[in-house]
């Protein structure tokens, strides 16, 4: 029986109505043609910038059908978009962009009996994996972007990932699809004798092109470039669903898919094999494939060096000796069996050195480095910006070593460089190259044309899983004969006769050097704000660190990550780190964001940025959006009237000093709701917030600067820096710190009261004042550093400012680096000296401060708590208050949602655990929203010391 289909869906256009008017009439609020949204969707993870006319975020299949019908009636091109992680420019278009990830992201069913699932196009791969996990199942292909890529995008590109070696491509795992063609027909695409009948003329097309399909298509597993017409052959089951996979939205739009699931490997082990270089590692691949690894990945030593430079040597697990590695995953019924299988593969290899890792934390860390490859490879070994374009070529595995040597020679001839990694078991190479795109695309074009010839000479494909997009479609003539190219055009015409579905991709391609994003952005030097030193003082270079890998769109909390709290709350692309970077990039190229730093689009995009700095740590590109937000506020309001909260919350340390003598009155006002709300509104704060209670005696009213605990000769010397928040609002923390440091045998001196990190000035963009304040801090603290004292901070955000922002705000002053090197958290200091902490059998729920996690890392604190015997559960992710952010008017809802989904949910699920939070804002948030008490680390240690003292 022929697959079901419906008649053409048509839309009658009233005379004189514009496309946007018609679209809004049909779909209402899910239509967005704002300049900010158009800017945010103007690029994906590729080199290309194509500004759409409008973006639609459909809630249902009917919305999609209606949107496409309106577009057809007005002859407007249509581009489907999932996670926007396309490296080849497959997900950008000039007309209507349909984003499926926002709402059409439901798993409709998981059937363990048939091992299948039914999904909407916007379902995240990780979501499907978690839904399948209770049944011992998973979806086989797994790109490294699994935390944010969608099933629709995977089908569009025919994605594979590391486990494509064992489970095949996405096309091999599709049962059927509900598909909207470019002509407006809804068909069911499946396989079998009558499958081709769903598309009129398709059976005839296949019979007329049998010879070229059999000889030029499907020659090896990773031949993804072009259309996969081999699936239409009778000997391949006339599989229309598989043939539509990898058409990159150019032949229609997916509405729903039924996919196969596979058994999950119980406890896979890793064999890590070291070789002299990547090409030598590739030479060994054919020798290892008979041992049937589940995955066989290549990793360049230079890529690992990038991780070490960013996160220190502890950021990388121990690796075997070598200049390049193969990472082989082996399965088994038990962990022991998997380890034995890994050992057999090591014995069969020609590696210089090897190590076997059972399933566990070390193996997971290594996989994370590999998963972050696209972002990490965005910088070469010399720190230059590297770009996609030739990031996805593939050759038969037997030819891989020779192909890699040819690529190295080609890069050397063109004076280019890049870091290689990829799915070596399938012959797929991911490589980003330092094309000088800040000038133009001429060298990129020449390299791509020569690289295409090289890949074809090795029997390969221009793309192994990313598709051709705008980057490689023009080069298909290098790989296919004119007859094969005509066959692909004819196939598209059967499904999209008006060429409205993602035009310029695969068939009738756009030039590969048209619409490049980077050349349009002129250099913009740093001014009197941040130095942007890591990017040579070029703000354009700094903001183009974001290459769109989209890790900020993933919920990283289950993995212990913190980025990006605003996006996890709103699920709106503009509220992701990537969306904000796109708005800033558009500002720099003078596109739809045309008023520079003061553009409303820039400030709307940055408004919900919590300045948590998680992106600086969690994003593999290292972009720091908090810095850009502060710089934008600085440049916008310099010499102008500022928002009210900048004068109140932004200058909070001064206000706290003035309010200290009036603490009883302020606290009384805070207990009277109408007066409290009035005071909060007067401050520019949200009236739903509580007014933090002021202590009757700030710490410094009792303790002056100077030595308070004198150690013996050779004892560690500490300068205890009491920040404004601790002094004026949490003096108990300062007293506990003194008690702990004294118990640890330190020679403690309290810093002068004028030492301030200027955090509130930095976060509100008052950078001129911040620089002045920080110079004063250098004057006060550096002399003590030169006397050999370690500066110990108590408030994580303040400590982080002296470790990071100080270096960017005063780079010309050598004392900045001197001080930054000497600043430590309490845990960092205590774990660096010979001291045994007291035992404390406490069950703790710990909320690390975002800046603590992002700048200093939380490892020392975790080690200290473990040494004390504490049972620790960590709440990953921001608390939602983030200094002034959650207090400001307009931010309450997002701030509260972040807390409810994070620390408050964990607290509700673990009522037996006591909350520990070093950040004053974190402690304020849990008290304000849930009435929960919490303690600082030094208070936990001090409590344990007192308990020890009472124990006989």
Entry keywords:
single chain; 952 residues; alpha/beta; seven-stranded antiparallel β-sheet; five-stranded antiparallel β-sheet; globular
In words, what does this structure look like?
This protein has 952 residues and is of the alpha/beta class. Helix content is 40%, strand content 12%. It contains 45 helices and 27 strands. The protein has a seven-stranded antiparallel beta sheet with strand order 15-12-14-13-17-18-16, sandwiched between helices. α1 packs antiparallel against α3 (61-73). It is globular. The relative contact order is 0.08.
Radius of gyration of CA atoms, rounded to a whole number? 29 Å
Taken as a percent bin, the fraction of beta residues is 5-15%
Task: Choose one word for the global shape.
Answer: globular
Largest sheet: 7 strands, antiparallel
Offer a quick outline of the entry.
The protein is an alpha/beta fold.
Strands, helices and their partners?
Layout: H1 19-27, E1 31-32, H2 35-40, E2 54-56, H3 61-73, E3 78-81, E4 96-99, E5 107-111, E6 116-119, H4 125-132, E7 137-138, H5 151-157, H6 164-167, E8 174-180, E9 186-189, H7 202-208, H8 210-216, H9 240-244, E10 253-260, E11 262-263, E12 269-275, H10 278-283, H11 285-288, E13 295-300, H12 301-311, E14 324-330, H13 335-348, E15 353-357, H14 361-371, H15 373-376, E16 393-394, H16 400-413, E17 418-422, E18 428-433, H17 442-457, H18 469-472, H19 476-479, H20 482-495, H21 539-543, H22 565-570, H23 577-589, H24 600-607, H25 614-618, H26 625-637, H27 644-648, H28 652-659, H29 663-670, H30 673-682, H31 699-702, E19 706-709, E20 717-721, H32 724-729, H33 731-743, E21 747-750, H34 759-763, H35 767-786, E22 790-793, H36 796-803, H37 805-809, H38 814-822, E23 823-825, H39 826-830, E24 843-846, H40 850-856, H41 859-867, E25 871-874, H42 892-901, H43 903-909, E26 914-916, H44 920-930, E27 934-935, H45 937-950
Parallel strand pairs: 2-4, 3-4, 20-21, 20-22, 22-23, 24-25, 24-26, 26-27
Antiparallel strand pairs: 1-2, 5-6, 6-10, 7-11, 8-9, 8-10, 12-14, 12-15, 13-14, 13-17, 16-18, 17-18, 19-21
Helix pairs in contact: 1-3, 16-17, 23-24, 24-26, 33-45, 35-38, 36-40, 42-43
């Amino acid at each position: 029986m022929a697959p079901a289909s419906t008649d053409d869906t048509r839309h009658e256009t009233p005379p004189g109505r514009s496309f946007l008017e018609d679209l809004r009439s049909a779909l209402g609020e899910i239509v967005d043609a704002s300049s900010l949204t158009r800017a945010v969707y103007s690029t994906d993870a590729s080199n290309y910038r194509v500004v759409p006319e409008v973006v639609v975020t459909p809630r249902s299949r009917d919305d999609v059908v209606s949107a496409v019908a309106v577009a057809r009636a007005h002859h407007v091109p249509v581009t489907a978009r999932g996670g926007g992680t396309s490296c080849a420019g497959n997900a950008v278009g000039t007309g209507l962009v349909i984003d499926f990830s926002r709402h059409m992201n439901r798993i409709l069913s998981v059937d363990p009996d048939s091992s299948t699932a039914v999904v909407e196009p916007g379902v995240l791969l990780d979501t499907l994996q978690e839904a399948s996990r209770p049944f011992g199942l998973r979806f086989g292909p797994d790109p490294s972007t699994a935390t944010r890529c969608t099933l629709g995008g995977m089908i569009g590109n025919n994605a594979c990932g590391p486990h494509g070696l064992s489970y095949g491509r996405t096309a091999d795992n599709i049962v059927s699809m509900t598909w909207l063609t470019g002509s407006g027909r809804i068909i069911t695409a499946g396989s079998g004798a009558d499958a081709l009948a769903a598309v009129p003329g398709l059976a005839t097309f296949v019979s007329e092109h049998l010879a070229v399909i059999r000889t030029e298509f499907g020659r090896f597993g990773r031949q993804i470039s072009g259309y996969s017409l081999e699936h239409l052959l009778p000997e391949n089951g006339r599989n229309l669903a598989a043939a539509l996979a990898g058409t990159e939205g150019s032949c229609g739009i997916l509405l729903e898919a039924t996919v196969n699931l596979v058994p999950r490997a119980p406890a896979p082990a890793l064999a890590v094999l070291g070789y002299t270089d990547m090409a030598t590692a590739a030479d060994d691949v054919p020798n290892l494939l008979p041992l049937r690894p589940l995955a066989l990945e290549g990793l360049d030593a230079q890529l690992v060096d990038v991780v070490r430079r960013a996160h220190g040597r502890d950021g990388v697990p121990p690796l075997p000796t070598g200049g390049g590695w193969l990472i082989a995953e082996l399965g088994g019924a038990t962990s022991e069996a998997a380890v034995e299988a890994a050992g057999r593969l090591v014995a069969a290899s020609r590696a210089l050195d090897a190590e076997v890792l059972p399933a566990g934390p070390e193996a997971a860390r290594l996989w994370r480095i590999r998963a972050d490859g696209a972002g990490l490879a965005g910088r070469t070994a010399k720190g230059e910006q590297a770009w996609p374009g030739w990031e996805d070529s593939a050759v038969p595995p037997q030819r891989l070593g020779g192909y890699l040597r040819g690529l190295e020679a080609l890069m050397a001839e063109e004076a280019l460089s890049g870091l290689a990694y990829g799915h070596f078991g399938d012959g797929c190479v991911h490589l980003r190259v330092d094309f000088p795109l800040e000038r133009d695309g001429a060298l990129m074009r020449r390299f791509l044309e020569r690289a295409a010839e090289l890949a074809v000479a090795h029997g390969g494909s221009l793309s192994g899983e990313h598709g051709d997009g705008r980057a490689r479609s023009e080069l298909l003539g290098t790989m296919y004969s004119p007859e094969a190219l005509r066959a692909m055009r004819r196939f598209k015409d059967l499904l999209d006769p008006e060429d409205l579905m993602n035009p310029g991709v695969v068939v009738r391609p756009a030039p590969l050097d048209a619409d490049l994003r980077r050349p349009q952005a002129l250099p913009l030097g740093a001014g009197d704000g941040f130095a942007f030193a890591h990017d040579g003082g070029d703000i354009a270079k700094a903001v183009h660190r974001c290459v769109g890998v989209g890790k900020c769109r993933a919920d990283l909390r289950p993995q212990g990550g913190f980025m990006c709290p605003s996006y996890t709350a709103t699920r709106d692309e503009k509220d992701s780190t990537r969306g904000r970077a796109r708005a800033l990039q558009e500002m720099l190229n003078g596109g739809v964001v045309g008023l520079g730093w003061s553009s409303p689009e820039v400030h709307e995009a940055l408004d919900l940025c919590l300045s948590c700095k998680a992106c600086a740590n969690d994003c593999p590109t290292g972009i720091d959006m908090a810095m850009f937000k502060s710089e934008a506020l600085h440049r916008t309001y310099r010499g102008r009237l500022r928002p009210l909260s900048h004068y109140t919350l932004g200058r909070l340390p001064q206000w706290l000093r003035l309010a200290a003598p009036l603490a009883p009155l302020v606290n009384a006002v805070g207990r009277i709701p109408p007066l409290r709300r009035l005071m909060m509104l007067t401050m520019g704060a949200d009236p739903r917030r509580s007014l933090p209670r002021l202590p009757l005696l700030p710490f410094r009213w009792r303790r002056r600067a100077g030595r308070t605990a004198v150690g013996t000769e050779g004892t560690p010397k500490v300068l205890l820096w009491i920040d404004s928040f601790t002094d004026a609002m949490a003096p108990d923390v300062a007293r506990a710190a003194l008690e702990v440091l004294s118990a640890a045998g330190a020679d403690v001196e309290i810093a002068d009261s004028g030492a301030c990190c200027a955090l509130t000035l930095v976060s509100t963009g008052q950078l001129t004042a911040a620089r002045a304040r920080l110079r004063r801090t250098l004057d006060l603290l550096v002399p003590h550093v030169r006397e050999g004292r370690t500066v110990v901070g108590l408030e994580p955000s303040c400590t982080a400012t002296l470790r990071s922002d100080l270096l960017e705000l005063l780079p010309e002053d050598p004392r900045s680096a001197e001080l930054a090197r000497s600043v430590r958290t309490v845990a960092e200091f205590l774990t660096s000296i010979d001291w045994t902490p007291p035992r404390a059998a406490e069950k703790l729920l710990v909320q690390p401060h975002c800046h603590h996690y992002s700048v200093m890392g939380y490892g020392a604190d975790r080690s200290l708590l473990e040494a004390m015997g504490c049972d620790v559960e960590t709440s990953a992710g921001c608390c939602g208050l983030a200094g002034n952010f959650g207090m400001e008017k307009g931010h309450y809802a997002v701030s509260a949602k972040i807390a409810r989904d994070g620390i408050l949910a964990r607290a509700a699920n673990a009522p037996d655990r006591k909350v520990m939070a070093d950040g004053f804002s974190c402690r304020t948030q849990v008290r304000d929203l849930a009435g929960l008490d919490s303690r600082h680390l030094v208070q936990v240690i001090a409590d344990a010391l007192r308990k020890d003292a009472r124990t006989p």
